[in-house]
Amino acid sequence: MARTFLALVSFIYILLAVWCAFAPDTTSQSVGFILKPGSGQSEFLTVYGGLELALGIVFLWPLFQKEVTHFSLCLCAIVHGCLVLFRTLGFFVFTGFESTTYALAGGEWLIFLISLTLCTITKRSTKSSLE
């Protein structure tokens, strides 16, 4: 179950990386960014395309190496916990959100809670199997 969940999260991140790389104007506008030609476009491609692809690869890794499942789940919980923290702070500090922002927030919360739960469960099962 954990590896299937991580593969699903991976698939989402890889799709987002492709969307950011091949349609940066559409992607950035959907989350309220205006890309400045040159530097802004490069930064968006690097951070959103590159980082999302890297996360997609890390979350896909357990399909090929089962031993990294617990690590990937914990990393997923940490990454999404940080996203949830800053997204929630943003909701208190800023106004005027588009529907995409709310959808992203819901997805981030869902992934955070599921990955945290699975991380906790796999730690217990790993610990008990080692004892």
Automatic annotation (TrEMBL):
Keywords: Membrane, Transmembrane, Transmembrane helix. The chain crosses the membrane at residues 44-64, 71-94, 100-121. InterPro entries: DUF4345. This is DUF4345 domain-containing protein.
